[in-house]
Specification:
This protein starts with 32 loop residues before the first helix and ends in a 32-residue tail after the last helix. It is mainly α. The protein is built from 7 helices and no strands. 42% of the residues lie in helices and 0% in strands.
């Protein structure tokens, strides 16, 4: 049962709080290659810094090297967080689903007898658009720095630090912040923040391998030997989220 795999992932919460954004604060900005090399040793002393494509030396879109590193760090942290959600969600959905109706018409949530990939395929088109609409809104809020309250992550913002919803909450509608909505971590020490940052990076990297391991094992039989006894065949295409429901090429 996939539930037994859950113990392999120790999901670390992000540990970000307002901090002075200076290049000397390695845990906050890590905007130079030297900062990345130091962080890599903390994440995995055995492997250390590994950048075979020399991405940390590039200049994306003419923004400069430090902005490029900020973009790369933001991308890794964001993908790691999504992968942690996906990994845990895959396991949970394989065993339990919400007991209440999924639609106003009374349709139930896709059965746990289906693979998580097939469960997604069974989600109504309207529900999928709602999910993507929320994701788009969250992405927009991140890109605009919470309405201009924070700088862009390519221009000095701490990588992975998601803007608070203060401006939205004060002017549009009450909503809780994504990170630490009740302020439990306001007094967290800098040492704890940096340690939890390393934990989050490592868990995110592991989760990215884990969720793609599940997807590969279900799609290509025997591709992941460790999962061959729990994987099930999936005939769809995980890279086509609206398969059979919507396509730009359907006229």
């Amino acid at each position: 049962m996939k539930l037994t795999v859950l113990s392999t992932l120790l999901v670390g919460a992000s540990a970000f709080a307002p901090a002075q954004n200076t290049a000397s604060n390695h845990g906050a900005l890590s905007s130079t290659k030297a900062d990345l090399e130091a962080l890599a040793v903390k994440c995995n002393p055995q492997i250390g810094y590994y950048d075979p494509l020399n991405l940390a030396e590039q200049d994306f879109w003419g923004l400069g090297n430090e902005a490029t590193i900020g973009f790369l760090r933001q991308s890794e942290i964001k993908h790691g967080r999504i992968a942690m959600f996906a990994f845990v969600g895959y396991i949970v959905q394989s065993n339990i689903v919400f007991p209440w109706a999924q639609t106003l018409a009374g349709a139930a949530h896709p059965s746990p007898d289906l693979l998580p990939e097939a469960q997604w395929d069974a989600v109504p088109l309207g529900a999928k658009w709602q999910i993507f609409a929320v994701i788009s809104a969250l992405e927009l809020w991140d890109e605009c720095g919470g309405g201009g309250v924070m700088p862009h992550y390519t221009n000095g913002r701490q990588p992975g630090k998601y803007p608070a919803f203060d401006l939205f909450r004060d002017n549009v509608h009450p909503v809780l912040n994504l990170y630490d909505p009740f302020g439990f971590n306001n007094k967290m020490s800098d040492e704890t923040k940096e340690r939890r940052l390393v934990v989050e990076l490592n868990n995110g990297r592991l989760a990215m391998l884990g969720i793609f391991g599940f997807l590969a094992a279900d799609k290509v039989a025997g591709s992941v030997p460790a999962l061959q006894n729990i994987a099930s065949s999936y005939s769809g295409d995980v890279m086509i989220p609206f398969e059979g429901q919507f396509s730009y090429f359907n006229f």
